[in-house]
Structure to design on (245 residues):
């Protein structure tokens, strides 16, 4: 879903919505989600104007009760059916199989992605943050034209890193369509960073609607461990990326 401004971006003026109430609705919806599919596109910019490094990636994530999940991120594909975890490195054409209860690396990669792209939104509406309504607009999505409220969220108390976040919220579905996280260090040696996450697909669905099968290609070879054992952990210093709701 490529999100762009619709031609009819301007809306009739009216009273600004209560940002806190909208954020609570979003948090409750994400907190109640036990089965879902999420597809995201991420762009990261770091540095001062004129000297900015840019990176990007895509990720797909699906989960259901019973330790069942699927994660696609970079060269990594991880699937758990609740009993076993298949970790497939596409670039190496190798995969491992481990019991779900002991597949620490795969489980950690999934939990990190789930926290980054879903669970942290269930923890937004707390006393430790303040929320402000910024503006209203219409955006074009894969599902059609959506009415969006843009909120700004930031910490009430000083943090080791100073951050603010813009949330683009579909007000009909109470779904986050875009997150723009600006992270500025108080230390001069660390340049500012902006991380934009566009949610191309968010479906909070029934567990029965999802399947969790490895679907490995014939060219993949089973190994005990990868030649390069790297997993796509999210190492963002933002506190919501490290702790659960």
């Amino acid at each position: 879903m490529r999100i762009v401004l619709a031609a009819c971006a301007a809306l009739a003026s009216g009273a600004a919505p209560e940002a806190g109430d909208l954020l609570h609705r979003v948090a409750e919806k994400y907190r109640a989600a036990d089965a879902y599919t999420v597809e995201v596109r991420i762009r990261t910019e770091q540095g001062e104007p004129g000297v900015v490094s840019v990176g990007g990636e895509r990720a797909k994530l699906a989960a259901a009760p019973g330790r069942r999940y699927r994660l696609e991120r970079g060269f990594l594909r991880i699937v758990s059916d609740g009993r076993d975890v298949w970790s497939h490195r596409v670039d190496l054409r190798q995969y491992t199989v481990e019991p779900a209860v002991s597949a620490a690396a795969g489980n950690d990669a999934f939990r990190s992605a789930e926290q980054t792209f879903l669970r942290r939104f269930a923890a937004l509406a707390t006393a430790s943050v303040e929320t402000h309504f910024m503006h209203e607009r219409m955006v074009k999505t894969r599902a059609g034209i959506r009415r969006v409220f843009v909120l700004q969220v930031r910490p009430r108390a000083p943090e080791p890193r100073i951050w603010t976040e813009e949330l683009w919220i579909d007000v009909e579905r109470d779904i986050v369509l875009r997150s723009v996280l600006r992270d500025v260090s108080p230390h001069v040696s660390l340049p500012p960073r902006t991380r934009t996450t566009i949610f191309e697909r968010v479906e909070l669905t029934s567990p029965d609607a999802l399947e969790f099968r490895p679907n490995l290609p014939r060219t993949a070879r089973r190994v005990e461990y990868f030649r390069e054992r790297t997993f796509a952990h999210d190492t963002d210093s933002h506190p919501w990326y490290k702790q659960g709701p």
User: Anything to note?
Assistant: Confidence is low (pLDDT under 50) at residues 1-15, 229-245. The first strand starts at residue 4 and ends at 5.
